[in-house]
Specification:
This is DUF916 domain-containing protein. The chain is mainly beta. Helix content is 12%, strand content 43%. The strands form 4 sheets. Strands 1, 2, 6, 8, 9, 11, 12, 14, 15 and 16 form a 10-stranded mixed sheet that branches. Strands 3, 4, 5, 7, 10 and 13 form a 6-stranded antiparallel sheet that branches.
Length: 395
């Protein structure tokens, strides 16, 4: 189970350990918390917390502290222990509820204390699933989760509880998800998290792992991803025989009720469709009411005025079921691509010979004027003077 460690004080960031970096590359990386689940071989995390993140595989989290390294996992479970699932997935009617369990296991050789809580789901700027920090009060499905604290646990203001686990110990946490009667149909992601509490650390670090909760409220849903806030800028190449670069920036907004991926494309062409170019970007996941920023470039010849569109084609994420039509949406774009470099080259190619000819003619006129002046001073009529070439260099 991959882990992200984020300093929560104003002091310097503590570098992540090698084990944490390996763990982050193995599974589902998330901004401040990793929400995946371990399988039936979770005990292997003591030796290799960076094992495969595939279903049924082991994964975990390691965090160094003044007292040693702590390795732990959070997994979907039944009342008897881990059940091999990789996440909690439910479709519920408004007003309905469901009982679930997760298990927190401390694989370390020393006791450790954890803050266990539920939080709203989000997606980081890198496109990875995350949950909001424990300091942020849940406003959506995170607030629908009620955790049953064990005897002796310490309630935490804002939600959840603190619990101490002995070395090698585990705790099954019962929980209930209750959907409000007026809940919006569609997806409401959340997560159940175990965050290591280390009061001895000189710099406070948030090291968290958890289980993702895929929660869908039944009802009529909309599914739409649309591009917005499109900006296009063309940059010429200093090589007159090479195309320039069109920089395209835009935002993909999920205007529907379910999470969707997107296949986003940019197409640009000059007048009458000349020099058409395109680029495609895959966006893995955009949550309802969420957005993803996209930047891309295409090589575009300076055709004075190029036009085209930014299109977003919705894509179903993973094993989700979306039973409504997925229609693409597009926004037209125009960018001016004036061939300044080519115009300068053309000016040089045409202008230099013209300037040379004009200069030679002016020089010839000046020579002839001096000859005429000399003849007039000598009293010789121009028609009696011998013929002289006014431009000896042309002989």
């Amino acid at each position: 189970m991959p882990v992200i460690r984020t300093t929560t004080s104003a002091r310097r960031r503590r570098p992540a350990s090698a084990a944490a970096r390996c763990a982050a590359s193995a599974g589902l990386l998330v901004g401040l918390v990793t929400l995946s689940a371990t399988g039936t071989h979770a005990a292997d995390a003591t030796q290799a917390p960076a094992s495969s993140g595939s279903p049924g595989s082991s994964s975990g989290s390691s965090s160094g502290s003044a007292s040693g390294t702590v390795t732990w996992t959070v997994e979907p479970a039944t009342a008897d222990g881990p059940d091999g699932r990789i996440s909690l997935r439910h479709a519920l009617d408004p007003g309905a509820s469901v009982d679930e369990h997760v298990v927190v296991t401390n694989f370390s050789d020393r006791p450790a204390t954890f803050h266990v809580y539920a939080a709203d789901g989000t997606v980081s700027a890198d496109g990875d699933f995350d949950v909001r920090p424990s300091e942020d009060a849940p406003r959506d499905s995170g607030a629908w989760v009620t955790l049953q604290a064990p005897e002796g646990a310490e309630p935490v203001a804002g939600g959840g509880f603190r619990v101490a686990l002995p070395a090698g110990g585990s705790l099954v946490v019962p929980l209930t998800v209750t959907v409000p009667a007026q809940a919006r149909p569609g997806d409401h992601p959340a997560g159940v998290v175990a965050e290591l509490v280390d009061d001895e650390a000189a710099v406070r670090v948030a090291a968290r792992v958890g289980v993702r909760l895929h929660l869908r409220v039944t009802g009529d849903i909309r599914a739409r991803v649309a591009p917005d806030d499109v900006e296009v800028r063309w940059e010429p190449s200093w090589n007159p025989f090479a195309p320039g670069t069109a920089h395209v920036r835009y935002v993909l907004r999920n205007e529907g009720d379910v999470r969707l991926g997107a296949r986003a494309g940019v197409t640009l062409a000059g007048p009458a469709g000349t020099g058409e170019v395109s680029a495609t970007t895959q966006v893995r996941e955009v949550l309802p009411e969420g957005s993803a920023s996209v930047e891309t470039t295409v090589r575009l010849w300076p055709l004075v005025r190029a036009s085209g569109e930014v299109e977003a084609v919705p894509v179903v994420v993973g094993d989700d079921v979306v039973d409504v039509a997925l229609a693409p949406s597009a926004v037209p774009v125009v960018v001016w691509a004036v061939p300044w470099v080519q115009l300068v080259l053309l000016l040089l190619v045409v202008g230099v010979p013209v300037l040379v000819v004009r200069q030679r003619r002016r020089s010839a006129r000046r020579v002839q004027a001096r000859i005429d002046a000399a003849l007039a001073a000598a009293g010789v009529a121009p028609h009696d003077a011998p013929e002289v070439d006014p431009d000896p260099a042309a002989a």
